[in-house]
## 1
Amino acid sequence: MPTEIDWSPTVDPSELVRQTRDTLASGAVVVLPGDCGYVALWRPGAAVNLPAPALLAWGPDEAAALGASVPPAARRLMFRAWAAPLVIEVPAAAYIPASANGFVRFRYPGHPLFDLVVPAVAELGPVLVADTGDATARAAAERLRQTVELVVNAGTRNANAKPTVVRATDAGYTITEPGAFPGEEIARLAARIILFVCTGNTCRSPLAEGLAKKLLADRLKCTVDELPARGFWVLSAGVATYGGSPAAAESCTVAAEYGADLSTHASRPVNAQLLLAADDVIAMTQSHMYAIAARYPDTGPVPRLLCGTEDLDDPIGAGPDVYRACAETIFRHLERILPEWVVS
């Protein structure tokens, strides 16, 4: 009979985590609560009869360290969506454990126990995980029989749904097995996040945000509201704002001349969460880049200037013609950058 331990979020889990690690190290199987019933964990070589196992990982860097190629969409989903009922399948060489037909699956189940177990078992090398489809720990243990030596019981869990399976490549992603994680949420989280940064987030960066949305929507033949579903989130922020201010009236006017709408814009301060989530951080001046680097060193992608090597002057306080010239400069450089985001 396997050892059975009851899970309680109010009890120190250190001993439970240690036993999980030691049991896996011995070559036996562990049953833990997951986000779609119970899951089984084991190391390669153990005789476990469960279909489509995944490698346990808690982020894209860990997946890459195991030898997998992690495309941008997979990296975004691993970083933004996990832990969740979401299996992410990426290209992989045949030597990687559990790979099949040129792909390997990764999984980070959405139960707080895994926040502790994943780093604790990292020293063991690859660990496989698969959903048993069972609502109780005992049912899962009986399914796996003598291979199980440790069971963590968290009571009856909802096993009616399966995790959603996404296959990601450099060309994008497809949902190969719909499941508990909504497709709409996957589209939102897999999108490329483009962040424009200026000082107060009322003049230049809102203009850049609005014009970039319009350019992308035109190129993709969709509306601005449909951009997240088409793979793009375009945002802006300021390095010196408390947030909540509307865009400058002149910015709204010249944006409208390009078909962009800034009427609902509200300024926001740049912060670490925005930078970490972003795929592109585009600043208006060198001083904005310095401010980001000083406050948030090594956080998110390396910022770059919208205008290549030149600063874009702040039009604040000037008349419409200065704003119009600013918009023309922004638009010209966005057209230059656009092919990086959308392949014609």
## 2
Amino acid sequence: MAAMTTKGSGPAQRVAGNSRFAGGLVVALACQLLAAITANAGTLSGKVRLAGTPPPHHKIIMTADPVCDSLYPKGREDEMVVADNSGGLANVLVYVKSGLPEKYRAPAPIGVVHIDQKGCEYVPHVIGVRVGQDIEIGNEDATLHNVNTKAVLNEPFNKAMAGKGQVLNTAFQHAEVAVKLKCDIHPWMAAYVGVFANPFFAVTGADGSFTINDVPKGDKYTVEAWHETLGTQTATIAIDEKSPANLQFTFAGN
């Protein structure tokens, strides 16, 4: 575009100049809007713990598929309940369930979310996406997988992925917590995708912690923590721009 109007003072140059001005104005307005939003928003963080003794892990034996078995000849532990020594519980979806201001409008989702079938397991095991967000599911294994979605509110699908390097692109069109992905060929393979209408969600890390930034100021949010086998817990909390809000969830172990 610049090459067309590098020199001279014809109409094209004026158009280019007006375009740059308009572009700068848009950026300035966007920055002002973002500043206004963040000025009236706060951070929600916390930790999810498992009380008591974690249930024992089941060892997955993969002799049914020589490719998988060669990767884990001694088997691999399942990922249903993953807790560290302090009880921090990983792979929990934490999200704002209700309480957003009536005037709040969620921005369009940005970017592509990646899920891999790698080592005959889904990586990551739990993930959150936005409604309509592009999802790319890859097969990094030199063996056949299939992606069978157990969706309730979204349209389920079951797609074979013949071998290494194949990619499946999809998106979910309705909020749902959570859509299960499974492989019928390797029945130990499962993953969960939380689909959300707004960007205020997180998945707990290895220590059970989570952080959700830029939550609009509100007096009574309902926040839910979801785990694939331990169920759900909810809490209410107020959020403002003055100090971070903190929530602690505890699920019962054995």
## 3
Amino acid sequence: MRLFKTTAGMRCYLGLYGHSKKIGFVPTMGALHVGHLSLIQGAKAQNDIVIVSIFVNPLQFGPAEDFDKYPRTFEQDLKLCEQSGVDAIFAPTAEELYGLGTWDKGVVNANPQLPITVSVVPPKSMTDVLCGRSRPGHFQGVATVVTKLLNIIQPTNAYFGQKDAQQVAIVRRLVADLNLPTEIMTCPTVRETSGLAYSSRNQYLNPQQKEQASVLYRGLQQAENAFRAQKRDRASLLEAVKTELALVADVQIEYVELVDPTTLMTLDKVDEAGLLAIAARVGSTRLIDNILLRNRQPIVAIDGPAGAGKSTVTRKLAQALGLLYLDTGAMYRALTWLVLQSRTSVDDEPAIAELASSAHIHLTTDKDTQNLTRVWINGQEVTHEIRSLEVTGKVSAISAQAAVRQQLVKQQQLLGKQGGIVAEGRDIGTHVFPDAEVKIFLTASVQERARRRREDLSRQGQPLVSLEQLEKDISDRDLSDSTRTIAPLRKAADAIEIQTDGLSIAEVTERIVNLYKQKLFLSQPD
């Protein structure tokens, strides 16, 4: 693991080793805990190189806040990062990151001796709400340091925790507004056994205060139970939280709010999704927590290696559950058809990126057969055209292009916004729908997949290939799929693995249907 304290060193390292690699970035202020390590694990699973920054940013602390006493455990942080497989640490000083200049009175800075002139200003509608009310200038400081770090590292993906939901929404907005080529990944909040969300500031709490602080999550759980009982209005949800928090007198509420998770605007009720957020003090320690409330049908995400039966099982599962089969392969075929129709060369990636970014693909399930996915692109149905040999011969080359994948993943996520879908692929549960309610990793031994492939060839009347050759081909394909730069095969940490050796399609489908029903049952109110 390398340690860099200067921008020049960090950029030189990335110039030498980051070319054509996926770079995952985890920005931190140090004092690493289990929550940070989960972000690093997420970055490790989805990228070739993982960079962690450790920098206590003076810009995001108010004059009366805990900048001076904020926990600093640098040596311990280095050990944890090395044990977690981090490739490089970026730990600049404030002078290195912000340089010298004239003190800007508009910037709240805990260290008035440090002249800082740079400032990124997010929309006030997002910074002056929730925590912004009591921490003026905080999110401006966060936006400034994150923008600088993203420009220095230029990562493929940057990882943030759901606990800091307001920060995540603001960073997503600035990345969109500034057209930064980084995808913002949000990882679930990691909690202690009591339900208390991990935070660097938890170390300020004594054992009694830690126990008292766990009421924050219990309050959120009460609101979640009310939500499942169809109470979707703001008053009912906030009342559920406050009633639980009132049971612990030493917890002083700063706010309990229901807002849109993207815009942070106040919601009167939850139509699609709502962010229920809390800030409170236990003793002198300020803590935050939140949950997302989604009014949608579940999403079933199925990943696994080639030949494990994903497509057949997914189609059968969608039919059994009455959900939409999100045929992502058909979407790539539809775009390939459009490329061919427009007589664009498959090597002209910029032109294909233009087509992909402006194309609108629509999928439905045929009501008569419940099997056939009907496909439209830009208003024209191409259900049968996308199965032509010409499309089949070009779809792999086009789907391997980064810009194509980026645009189609956006469309897939938009199609899944209301839930009620079953989707399959290589990274559906880790990247496309990381918040899917049911995640399945469908697999089978190389020997079993080779046997199935040989039976398929026999049924299709094609020349038979030896089992040994098929096993070698499948092993090579597994290695290629799991190490490819774009959309590598990944098993989500919370996915349920189903080994299908010796199981029929019907048996696998039935098993997943039962898992889906168990999930729905567990989500029902008591």
## 4
Amino acid sequence: MKLRIDLNADMGESFGPWRMGVDEELLGRVSSANVACGFHASDPLTMARTVRAAVRLGVAVGAHPGYPDLVGFGRREMEMSPEEAEAVVVYQIGALAAFCAAEGAELHHVKPHGAMYNRAARDRSLAEAIARAVRRVDPRLILYAQPGSELARAGEAAGLRVALEAFADRGYLADGRLQPRSQPGAVLRDPEQVAERALRIVREGRVTAVTGEEVELRAETICLHGDNPEAVRLAEAVRRRLEAEGVEIAPVAV
């Protein structure tokens, strides 16, 4: 059977005249886009343009909700009650879904951003709040989550379709968590290294941790960060390597 994987990227993270990433170039190399919803990054016009470009290129569109932290780019943890976190996520999914509807497309998935995503991997209460929010907006939405995370468990318990996600451009710890960005080597920038890692995830379902241990990592989708300065080169290398090895690149099946 032919191997298949989704390549996703975080994008639509510019704000007003401030630019982040090269979304148009990156969109042509991935199969799904996680579009920021205005809380950790983005604004209404950026959301509209990003969704329009993704739809035109046949890329599946997902909501990328985060903490309301524009200054910190959503990478700082915030204390919220489960009720508040649920409302914050509902609000952002709803906003992105409206831009999809305006383009005649359907929202495909939800992937929390930054500190919210990382905390939901270990915080059951936050994970359940996110899963409830997704289900309340549309139970058909796919939830992207790390293997073995509380978010994956909460999504499955809520009856959601959960797509397990790996990161080709991030370092891993021996327990399967992402290496903190504050540590050297946490973000990978070498295209060949990242492409080799992506191929190994698809074929073997594992990566090598920064301390040398082998980490099992079953995944349906692989993320490449749009704010990585090498994002386009990495995406090109990953896609070229996977396709050369006969791997089909396509959005996660609903």
